Amino acid sequence: MQVSGEIQEPFDLIRLSLSERVMVKLRGDRQLSGVLHAYDGHMNMILSDVEETVMIVDPVPEGVKPSIRVAKRQIEMLYVRGDGVILVSPPQRE
Amino acid sequence: MSFFGFETSVPRDDKDSKQAYAEEDIAVYTWGDASYDALGSALEETGDDLNDETFGGGPVGKDFDFSGATNAALTNQPNVQPSKPYQSDLAPKTQQNTSSTNDLWKNVDPSSAFSKQVPTEHITNPVHQTSAAQRTAPSVFAQINPSVNPQADYNITNLSSATAALSLDGHNEARPRTMAEIEAEMHAALREQQQQQLISQQRERERMQIEQQLLMQQQQRMMEEEQLRMEMEKRRLYEQQALQDPLWAIRQAMMQENGMSVQGPSDLRPSLSANVSPMTQNRHPMSQIPHQPHPPHNHGAGNQQALVNELLLHHQRQQMLEQQGHPRPNYDISIESQDAMAADARRRMQEAEMMEARHRRRMAKIQSMARYNDIMTQSDKDFITRVQVAQLVTSDPYADDFYAQVYASIRQQRIASENQVLKGAPRQGGQRGPHRRENAIQRMQAHVERIVSHMKSREQSKEASSHNPGLQNVLGKTSGRSYKAAPRQLLQVATASPDSRAHHPVKEHDSVKSLDSHVHHGDLPPPFSPTEGLMIIERLFNNILEIEQLRRNKPLAEDEARMSTWKQSLDELLDTIWQGLRVVGPLYETNPHPFIALIAPMKGKRFIGRLGRDLTDEQKLMTLGVIVNRIEQLDVIRGAAILDSVEDSPARRMFERQAGAFQENVINQGLHLSPSARTLKTYTALIELMIENLSTFSRVVITRPGLTLLEHFFAEASLLKHGLQGPEGEHIAAPAEDVAKWSNLYDRVFEHLLPLWNIMFPSTRILAAFPPNSLEAVQVSVVTDGFDLHVWRFLAGFALEGTLEQHSRLVTQLRAKVMGTLRMAQALEEGKAKARKIRNVDLFLNALGLSSTQILEATPQIPI
């Protein structure tokens, strides 16, 4: 199977994920999971059917184990600005 | 010490030299010297005691009595004041003086354009000379007037010999002149210039009249306009003059009367175009109302209106006469035509004024923009052009600029068709050249093309020179670009080309292959990793884009050679796609089948939908065969368990979309057979293939996508069984043996499905988790009714084809389901949910010729 011809640059891998579900890790302890519709060289992206997961670490006094809450929300269509993107990956295989 | 580098030392014997200078009667100033006599401090600085000495205390002369001079000059004219003989005697003399001094002054001034013309005029035309003098007369500075108070004048002459000499004899150049005289001369000269200009214009106009008689008909219009413009120019000057000098008009009229006699064929003037170019002359807004009232009897050039009339009339007459073949008109102007022509002329003048205003607006705009002229240097402009071109140049214009390309091709087609229309019609005269804007665009395009080709040729020459690296730059560096001009690229973005695979940065991960569904689906390995599948789809999409591009560039049917190569390349591409789909090949070597794996992602399904028309019926049938044969491997069948739940989740929504896409894009669009291939036999074969493996069939058919696929085949088959409508509306019955085969198959399917009906309903499967007849179950059933719809629908369609005996068996089998549904409907209040339940059941019952109302009326309370 010779498929490497299609992949010349990192963006080609993202191109393969067009109209596929992707997992996007963002700065600020956020994660997105949605269907990728478009992207550009800045990694700005259009995602649809998005689930955003935000990790919230509540401030606690010294010595106490910090509690981590996870907040989730659904967004139908989302524009993601590229400067917050840490990584883009296909969804985890179950 | 030499401060500025020149000799500053005083000669030694300065005493002697001073004495020597003194003897020479030259003032010797010795400020700063020891012998300084302090004369400067003795100056009287404060009082005005000695003003008399400075300015003179004698009787004041009349040199500066300019108004008096003007009056005198006016009265000089014989017809005005003939009663003063000595004044009229004096007048010619002074005029002579002025003229001659004017001549001298003009000769001295090299910048005067008229310096050469004026003297000849004076010589050849004494009448004009006089008129020129008369012209200058009313001007306050025109001349020194000796007539008002000759005695005083002579007094001055006595006092100052220079003044007297001039006033008596202007030819004496050696004598100094008074300021007043010089001033007067200068002003007179200025006037002279202006008058000369006017006269020359007038002459031009008159010469034009003669010339126009010889001109062709087409030229006449142009000339008319030119004439008109000239008239206006003249008029403007006239008005300006009149505003400055109220008496000017009178003088002008007189002058023109005289000037009329001046003109002759020997006139050697610059051509009209040089004089009356609208761009070069400073123009001012013109008032529409005639400023100067002209006496109607004045047929001279002074009456411009009349002149214009005459001119226009002349043109008309000439045109008429030329058409009739007459040689030349003579001048006879009737009053009626004059009036008509006056109106016409006025209209033309207004038009010209509008043109003028437009021109002025344009110039003002250009001027306002001109502020920013030359802000950018040429290198700045080049830089920007380079940036723009860099944006434009691409290795793959089609992919990078898809929409522009499509738009351009559509536009080209339209233009081509328009051109054909134009070619068909005879070319009319009114066709204009390309619009200015289009011109600019064309120029820009040509410019960009030039730059691009230049860049390309440079690249090529660079490459060519690099073929011989040993000899490169041995004769010195020829490349003008330094490393600064081309900064190091931050990201090397290589363009995709098939031969550049050798240095691919991404490695294949074999581990991914083995990781996937290997474990879940028996011993068979998957055909490729999900990533590879996506890559294959990408490649297929590229292929289909190429095909679409190829279709756009379809050669003309007449061009057989190109047509055949075009067809060949199209066939090659189609074959590439067909191979890429991997439908043909071993069926059981991988799990899932390669094609099934390819249509697993949404993109794959959409691709089949897009491909649609490009697959042959044979290929479609093969594909359908693969799908039916390996139906259990389909993602929409494998993951259908997610539908057996009332919970909403992103995964479920995703699956719903996938299932919809499979049915819509793959089955209805992509693999939709052409009418010729849609036969009863085909669908019989497909359904047969479907029930070949019974265990698989029973698993597949209880899923919604599986049942939808079966329903699709079944609906087609039952339609075809009843025959077809031919092209002329005739009925084409299905072959008898096919119908027989179909009935046989139906019976087999009926038997297979009979025990499955109950479990086929999603509600049955879902509600099994809830205690029967509980409130919860009823509530859930409201949701599951929506899921059940497709089963009821298929059941209705299926039952229609069955026999009465089969109907009764169906009713027996489904009695519990029907009754249970109706019972739940009774438990519900009136509303949408209840109506839906009853509607679902009625779908099936109506197909059998029954109705739910019969049951509900018979048993108001259905027992459990």
UniProtKB/TrEMBL annotation, chain A:
Domain Sm: 9-94
MF terms (GO), sorted A to Z: RNA binding
SUPFAM superfamilies cross-referenced by the UniProt entry: Sm-like ribonucleoproteins (SSF50182)
InterPro entries associated with the record: Lsm3, LSM_dom_sf, Sm, Sm-like_LSM3, Sm_dom_euk/arc
Keywords on record: mRNA processing, mRNA splicing, Nucleus, Ribonucleoprotein, RNA-binding, Spliceosome
Keyword Transit peptide found: no
GO biological process, one term: mRNA splicing, via spliceosome
Subcellular location: Nucleus
Pfam families named in the record: LSM
GO CC, one annotated term: spliceosomal complex
Gene3D superfamilies: 2.30.30.100
Domain of life: Eukaryota
UniProt function note: Binds specifically to the 3'-terminal U-tract of U6 snRNA.
Subunit note: LSm subunits form a heteromer with a doughnut shape.
Family: Belongs to the snRNP Sm proteins family.
Protein name: LSM complex subunit LSM3
UniProt source species: Serendipita indica (strain DSM 11827) (Root endophyte fungus)
Phylogenetic placement of the source organism: Eukaryota, Fungi, Dikarya, Basidiomycota, Agaricomycotina
Record gene name: LSM3
TrEMBL record, chain B:
Keywords, sorted A to Z: Coiled coil, Cytoplasm, Nucleus, RNA-binding
Cleavable signal peptide: none
Biological process terms in GO annotation: deadenylation-dependent decapping of nuclear-transcribed mRNA; P-body assembly
GO molecular function, one term: RNA binding
Alphabetized InterPro entries for the sequence: Pat1-like (IPR039900), PAT1_dom (IPR019167)
Polar residues bias (residue ranges): 68-86, 93-115, 466-477
Stretches assigned to coiled coil: 191-236, 335-362
Localization (cell): Cytoplasm, P-body; Nucleus
Ranges of biased composition (kind: Basic and acidic residues): 453-465, 500-521
Source organism superkingdom: Eukaryota
Disordered: region residues: 47-115, 279-302, 453-477, 495-521
Keyword match Plastid: no
Sequence ranges assigned to domain mRNA decay factor PAT1 in this UniProt record: 1-850
GO cellular component, one term: nucleus
Family: Belongs to the PAT1 family.
Protein name, UniProt field: mRNA decay factor PAT1 domain-containing protein
